[in-house]
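Meet my pick.
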Amino acid sequence: MAWSSRKTSERGSPSRKSSLRMDDAFESVSELGSLELMNRETELPPYGPLQKSLSADSLNSISSVNNNFGQDFVLGQVEVSVHYEPSNRMLRVLVLQGKDLLEKEDPAFDSCFLRVSLVPEEQIVGISRIQRTAYSIFFDEKFVITVDPSVLEESSLRFSVYGIDDDDRNVMTGVVDLKLSVLELPHQPFCGWLYLQDVNKASDSVGEILLSLSYLPTAERLTVVVVKAKNLVWTNEKATADPFVKVYLLQDGRKISKKKTAVKRDDAHPVFNEAMIFSVPAIVLQDLSLRVTVAECGSDGRADNIGHVIIGPLASGMGITHWNQMLATLRKPVSMWHPVRRN
């Protein structure tokens, strides 16, 4: 894994590869564990409590799912180190290096720079020097900002790449957010690679979906909360539709389980708040991925897929960033917005 953190050592190093049985994903769990924490972490009180998703389609056979991991959203990656000093409330950010920060086939930009900001306030933490190459950069640039400890629980560090064109205009090309609340910065620093999302290509998405992930190693339980979606674009340019979400658990690209939410009537910004719980041995975590499909239930009763999100070690952009943050902060829910790719 490109994501590095001391906390990942809790997983141990698997010595053999195992396969999930079909019934592993359909366990009965009476104690939902981290769902109360997820409810707080995803700011759900206005929408009501989380519900456990009980809908699970039975699978007559293990069928393969198209292994399209959204590579057209990936842009490049940047290695960073983040450290917080509670005594003087100093947040220290070190930008170490970057790779492929601009598309090689795009001649529009001959240089670039990186901006670090604190969101949602969009407070600028620092701006790197202008780089004449974007494909292998050794930054080694340090930025410091005063941050109250309470702000860490509400903020993310945003790393944005800007290309500079021939007219000296700055155009954002890639971005990635690092959520601070899941890093436990007052106790230990973070260092790792972050995968940039291509903002220009991601703009072709057909909506966004908020998902929360958590893995509990003692119970070997993976919890996926489908929180809500927004700005959904219906298929065939329909004026309205009834959306729902399907979550596939994949191992090596093969479908192990499928669960789905309830249908929301005539809502382009549906709130689901449904938790889907899978029994997953730690030894197979590196072989798993999640495919989250947003679908619509038409007037004729047929279900048409609007788009999908892939999350896992073989994904790219936000998909691998979300998965790696979950593994780096075991037992704690991690929520992120994902663009929904058109099928």
Notes: Helices lie at 35-41, 149-152, 199-202, 318-328. The longest strand covers residues 74-85.
